Amino acid sequence: MRRGFYIGRFQPYHNGHQAVLEEIAKWSDEIVIGIGSAQLSHTLENPFTAGERVLMITRALQSLDCPFYVIPIEDIRRNAIWVAHVRSMTPPFDVVYSSNPLVMQLFHEAGMTVTSPDMYERATHSGREIRRRMLSGDEWQNLVPHAVTDVIDEIGGVRRLQQIAGTDE
Amino acid sequence: MRRGFYIGRFQPYHNGHQAVLEEIAKWSDEIVIGIGSAQLSHTLENPFTAGERVLMITRALQSLDCPFYVIPIEDIRRNAIWVAHVRSMTPPFDVVYSSNPLVMQLFHEAGMTVTSPDMYERATHSGREIRRRMLSGDEWQNLVPHAVTDVIDEIGGVRRLQQIAGTDE
Amino acid sequence: MRRGFYIGRFQPYHNGHQAVLEEIAKWSDEIVIGIGSAQLSHTLENPFTAGERVLMITRALQSLDCPFYVIPIEDIRRNAIWVAHVRSMTPPFDVVYSSNPLVMQLFHEAGMTVTSPDMYERATHSGREIRRRMLSGDEWQNLVPHAVTDVIDEIGGVRRLQQIAGTDE
Amino acid sequence: MRRGFYIGRFQPYHNGHQAVLEEIAKWSDEIVIGIGSAQLSHTLENPFTAGERVLMITRALQSLDCPFYVIPIEDIRRNAIWVAHVRSMTPPFDVVYSSNPLVMQLFHEAGMTVTSPDMYERATHSGREIRRRMLSGDEWQNLVPHAVTDVIDEIGGVRRLQQIAGTDE
Amino acid sequence: MRRGFYIGRFQPYHNGHQAVLEEIAKWSDEIVIGIGSAQLSHTLENPFTAGERVLMITRALQSLDCPFYVIPIEDIRRNAIWVAHVRSMTPPFDVVYSSNPLVMQLFHEAGMTVTSPDMYERATHSGREIRRRMLSGDEWQNLVPHAVTDVIDEIGGVRRLQQIAGTDE
Amino acid sequence: MRRGFYIGRFQPYHNGHQAVLEEIAKWSDEIVIGIGSAQLSHTLENPFTAGERVLMITRALQSLDCPFYVIPIEDIRRNAIWVAHVRSMTPPFDVVYSSNPLVMQLFHEAGMTVTSPDMYERATHSGREIRRRMLSGDEWQNLVPHAVTDVIDEIGGVRRLQQIAGTDE
């Protein structure tokens, strides 16, 4: 049994995440997906709740050919104990897939195997870019799985983001 | 879409929980399972980590004929905001299934529909009884799904509980 | 200007508190009333929210001939810094009125003047006794000001307490 | 009974707040005033303690023709549960008066009525501008009620702010 | 370089702790002494502050022939991350000396070497027994190093404990 | 007995700190050294854990002719209670040595004596400058005591900082 771990804030979950997870699925028997900063929502950087992000990810991966767990992880604001915190909230995993330098360093110091997945069209496929487009009214739907568009529509996610930004014209 | 919510500490997950969830599955399109006191582990009342409990539940429900989410929920130690906390961590749900008087009252005050499922052989099928049997070396395996026995064996769960109790003979 | 400080959990506010505050009013230009354990509610020991307790106290003291402040104080769970915490949340005060040994000791170590008010019919006029009567269905209304009975009725306070206790016959 | 809610950080309380509250008083039987970020003080953005702010507000509103409550509200750093937190600390209210986009959105998602009061000479009547004047030694007293000047003088508020800024010439 | 780790609450530090540390000193180049529950004080179980306990230990060990560190460790209330928390606050250590079943289990699960030191006259040499004697006015001074008696006298420790207990005759 | 208090984040401990402490040693019988933001590590501003900083300081001061305590102090994020927090974690002290405006103001408001030590070649001897040099690969070793270089080498501190910065070429 080989279980891989992948963590992100998924604000929102997009095609770049999807591409990475499809890649990880090839090498894993099971995947644990951690939703970071789970306690944050309704900010410009973190508009969606953990529950909304659980929904986006689960629906978008419905046809993934690999069992997966989606686990909200609240911030603990202490890097030195963050790995222990993550591990207490998740089924045990063998490999960490991450391109985040801090995440890589923390798992490396904890003695775990860390692998950097290839990024998928990173310039456009980033949460920051997608949130920017939502705010400015640009097309963002083509950057996320259909299921994610549906979830964001249902919860009025774009309207929420614009309202928070105080630019709700 | 009718989504039901069920919460417990699952220390450990047992046949009583399984029976309730199989009942809830008949009435729901999807089930959200909250793991309460997710941050606790390695105590006499809460021996298992959230990640270990995620594993028990997911494996035991592998053949359940209803999609489900398993979400660790850390305690927030403030009853008046607990429902909002739970809802921020979970996909939206319509019905709460619970027999816990406090949980029922808190969701009721929040204006949600609460239903009490029938309990399954409650005297023996309780976490407290199972932990008691683990400590005293009695048979407990017949009270939990096979998958749970496997998880507890893998992590040395009985040994951990006995060691914590200082009764490790 | 002589400002007195009085703190309690007020679960609920009763005639004993009222008698003490009427006494303190004689010696003070203003009174600061701290609501302790403000973050707790919906438990057997602490059934009412801070906001509900603010309402009870303010209404019951409506005709007190001394200006007063009612300030919710969340627990900080560290006795050595509790006095500094209280003082940061309240207008400055000169005298502490308390019969609680820990409160007295903490303010004493901080170099403040502490005075023990006479207690009013303490055996019956205690939050514990009133909550016990609410649970068992006994008469409790005669132990609290009329305004408090009204608030508890409005919020369904007795029903809430009984439900939490799981003894709601 | 119609109770309105108004929240701010009040660093410090100024004539703009006063004008808004006088307006709200016309439409309300009672007003609940929440002091946000109550736990913060002694910073450039938040120089005054909650207790000092309680004092400023209470004194400045002494002749307001509407009963009011002044309630310190500590930050909870989780937007999704902030409304529940506020409501647990305050008497129940019917209308929220706010011009803050995040506050408006959070109460709106909670299903409450939110109204935007007219702002009073906003360019000069802002906490930021008043703190800037305090730091640079400019006239700020004309922007706040007299009672607020008195409180700030008593506690050495301007000196505190300048000292924290390290520009205490 | 062989560094040993020893942790206790030291409420108060007594001859039993001293005997264990003198034993550990024989096997170590340096000792790290962790003061557990550092944030607690002024309770019946935890009367002394972390700073007071630092003072007791440092003075009592003044002539120990082994360099040592005394580090207050605040509780983190999550067993699964407690070892990581301890290690982030202390210089790295190789061996854990403990007789506490939970401490032993947590370090064991983290893959560290744990050794149980012999206890010294455990029945009388326990914090609980010493605090009991302080409360009842019995002789306790013979159970602690002289330096500890001095510290407790300076801070009025017995008076504090009796006052908290409400039995200050 | 005259005990002085000195606090810093020591990220890392450098010759400027050493010079100040040697000066304080002349005026003190004992020194209490507080390690601020003890819970932080693995960030660009705070790369080292509290335990690593304890090690740096203790080794660098090995030949100081004045007994000293090194105490990690976790942030409490509330300035108004920070002094009480510090005092609960440390042996009692009489004089505070600090050049930090906020630290000076907070101890001043608490009624304590605060003295500003002369700074030693401040432009180069700052944690910020040393971390900048570590990141850019410049010479930094001449700005810290030898013992600190050793500790940073042992833990791979420069590599950690570069990795976190994502500039690890």
From TrEMBL, chains A, B, C, D, E, F:
Q: Domain Cytidyltransferase-like spans what residues?
A: 5-133
> Where is the protein localized?
Cytoplasm
Q: Where on the tree of life does the source sit, at the highest rank?
A: Archaea
- State the InterPro entries in the record: Cyt_trans-like (IPR004821), NMN_Atrans_arc (IPR006418), Rossmann-like_a/b/a_fold (IPR014729)
| Family (UniProt) | Belongs to the archaeal NMN adenylyltransferase family.
Top EC category: transferase
What are the alphabetically sorted keywords of the record?
Answer: ATP-binding, Cytoplasm, NAD, Nucleotide-binding, Nucleotidyltransferase, Pyridine nucleotide biosynthesis, Transferase
Question: Which pathway does this chain act in?
Answer: Cofactor biosynthesis; NAD(+) biosynthesis; NAD(+) from nicotinamide D-ribonucleotide: step 1/1
User: NCBIfam families per the record?
Assistant: arch_NMN_Atrans, cyt_tran_rel, PRK01153.1
| PANTHER family assigned | BIFUNCTIONAL NMN ADENYLYLTRANSFERASE_NUDIX HYDROLASE (PTHR21342:SF0), PHOSPHOPANTETHEINE ADENYLYLTRANSFERASE (PTHR21342)
What name is this protein filed under? Nicotinamide-nucleotide adenylyltransferase
Catalytic activity annotated for this protein? beta-nicotinamide D-ribonucleotide + ATP + H(+) = diphosphate + NAD(+)
Q: Which Gene3D superfamilies match?
A: HUPs
Pfam families of this UniProt entry? CTP_transf_like
Native organism is Methanoculleus taiwanensis
Q: Which GO BP terms, alphabetically?
A: NAD+ biosynthetic process
What Enzyme Commission number(s) does the record list for this chain? Answer: 2.7.7.1
**What's a single GO MF annotation on this record?**
nicotinamide-nucleotide adenylyltransferase activity
List the GO terms this entry assigns under cellular component, sorted alphabetically: cytoplasm
